Amino acid sequence: MMSEKKTIIEFKDLVKTYGKGEAKTYALNKVSFSIKKGEFVAIMGASGSGKSTSMNMIGCLDSPTSGQYLFDGINVEKLNRNQMALIRRNYLGFVFQGFNLLGRTSALENVELPLIYRKVPVKQRKMMAFEALKKVGLESVVHHTPAELSGGQQQRVAIARAIVTNPLVLLADEPTGNLDSIKSIETMDLLRKLNEESGITIIMVTHEDEMAKYASRIIYFRDGHIEDSLKKGYK
To answer: Which GO molecular function, any one, fits this protein according to its record (predicted)?
Structure first.
């Protein structure tokens, strides 16, 4: 019998508030959920529902007001800013709606950036960056700048940059938001392939039902709470 997969993300009665007194608002109100290693989870909800706040917590970009956030067993709320930055650098990969590529540098150089921060030797980081681009099917355009690539290709470069460090978790924030329907499907097919073949845990915020269906599980937020049921995707 196969052992159950390890829990990598866990919220325990997590609360995030902004403001004080009568101006106090709850972005998250006693939210509890867990995500296991190797899952592909979509987070959905209306604007102000708490999905973006949850993503910021998972990405160690913000700290809870109360409750616990465990990342791979570590109590994140007890860490200082430098320690949270180390988690982001060493264990997380980020993909954004806007690609966030450097315009005057090649695809290869863009993918190298996280490795430069890690002080990986030049020869090794170029090899790692090329392998990451190969994983996303862009080995033929490594020397192209973003202006010479389509929107879909630019997002693939961004995904390669996010996975080049072999992160434990890939966080994707509206990864198809700036893409047409065909490029959106190509991007989601790629993310699902990375999840299935590389076993990378993916957590994606999206407002698009068709994109959420690529996930193995969908978590719906409403007014700072998780809705009663966790619905399955159609992976």
So the answer is: ATP binding
